[in-house]
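Q: What would this complex look like in 3D?
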Amino acid sequence: MEWIDLPDDSKREVFKRLDLMSRYAMRCVSHADREVVDSTDLYVPRVRFSQGHDNKALIVVYTGIDEFLRMEFSEMKEARGTVIHRLQNSYDLNEASVKVLPYDEKTSVEVAGSILKTLFVHKSILIGTMEFEFSEGSEMIQIITFGLLTRSLDGNPLYPVNVFRVKKMATNWYMKSEVINAIREVLLSKEDLVESDNDILKIYPNMAPPVMAFDRTFEIDDRQKIFRQTRTFMGVNMQTLLNYARTTDGMTTGRFIKDEQRAIWDLDPTPITRFSDQIQMKRFMNESYGLVVRYYKSDCGVWMHIMPPHFEKKFATFLKNETCGLRYLCKKCADPFEYWFYQNLPRRLCNEPEWLNIIYRPYARFPNELKKYNKIVEESLKVAAEDEKRRKKAAKNKRRKEKQLAGVETPEVEVIKSWGFKKTAAKNN
Amino acid sequence: MTSPASSSEVKYLIESSEGNTFDVSGAALRQSNTFNAMFLNIGADGPIPFTDYNEATLKKVFEYCEHSVNEENYSGPKHQDDLSKWDLNFFNEMDQKMFIDVINASNFLDIERLTSYCCERIARMLRGKNTQEMIKVITLPTAEELEAKQKVEEKKAAAAKKVAEKAAETAEKTETLEELPVQQLVQTTRNKLTRKYLSFSNE
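A: Here is my prediction, written as structure tokens for the whole assembly.
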């Protein structure tokens, strides 16, 4: 029996175990194999599209914890054309496989868009989170970027043709709501999308993983689809939560994992009710603001939902079914990839200094605030770089210790580089 | 020989595509969900026919099953680097053709652990390769090879047709020969009767 005689079911079992690029290469082996590949489901935890300054674009495909493919697109300065730097599990452009595309009347955004289309627009591919990160700029620039992206997908802003199957859409805080809505309506499949998040990461000079998140939930529709804006904090800032709640037409939530934050719960005199076996709840009305506060405590941490009374009825099903309110901050309950992703999000400061549009920065029209904040970012960058060095050293030491304990020379686990991402690949592709 | 049993002592006879039979323990066979669904409760009279697979493949599959009888229940794919020395030797001994045969048989027999490991090994052979390299790995025939294969098959078909035609001709001749004595008999009888009748009428 040969490969071509192997039944489709067995081939599918093999294809399930292929990485994204090998799967794509396999599609081109034969018509029969392409059909089987296309009927094999693939789940990609996260895909990120970033539009940068100087007509740059970036695609990062997160395939697992600590595993990602990175493609950076920039326009050539002297000759016309697009340069693509392809990296696997690395940020160092010196290690990149470089490919030059001759000028084809396409911008970097369009080239990136067409690659996104080739790799991910298919009914068998489901993306966990698709992140769109636009740089600061006028609404017009964002609309043009959206237009270029749509054109590269052979779509029309009014009649979408190719759409991504995405469970959660994530956008950065610079993005205008009109553009966010347009992306949601035109580029993403309505059947699969369950959550739409607008993310902001607020950093503090002492580099640390996030310890709290505040979010504003504007809408949870009949099918429990959630639309919200999230601010992730690497430090404590309780005052923001109250300011948020007063001005939000929806539900405002604070999520805390640090032990000292749990003390707030103990200080509150409201009687405790049992919400479920694992969760205790305190519910009270804040008369001065006219808001309902629902305060929860479990082994994972504490969280509070604050909302106008009519939203309590509106979100009743969601509130009734909630099991852990810490989202990606909870090591125990969150999806392991999501947990890893958000714990490492602040590392973008040192790993991708050109692509920091998720990080909060005051607008240019507030120069004093901006100056102050830029200083914080600079300090954080230094701390982040030192932290990265420390982390690498600790990992190296850990490996050495493990080897000593095992008493035998264990070979390093071989990482097979994806097709197109080897340094020599540029010559062949 | 074969009966519904839970004891690992019970042996079952397995028949391969060559018509050969060999013993496999009940404990090993119970790793096959196909076997569990078809034979475990009702038993089997005589050898169990797995005649789509050759003896070497089936023996390889059941060698693995016999070895992993005492292992914990399969709970999802294991990292390749966590495989035992025996497992590694077992897989290293197999060539690509055998891998494909084993995957196919294991898939039919629904032995999750073996299917998973074999598929992982094949996937490892393919990972990181471009299309051309993949074609080499799975030894997919080129267009010329396919054409040559088709020609050979056409020739074989033509030869088979000729043989069939000859056989048909021979059969026709045989039929005529076989029919002769009957016709002769009929004719003789008719002649006799005619003669009788004529003689009678003459009388």
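A: To summarize the key features: The radius of gyration of chain A is 24 Å. The CA atoms of residues 324 and 333 of chain A lie 7 Å apart.
Q: Very helpful, thank you.
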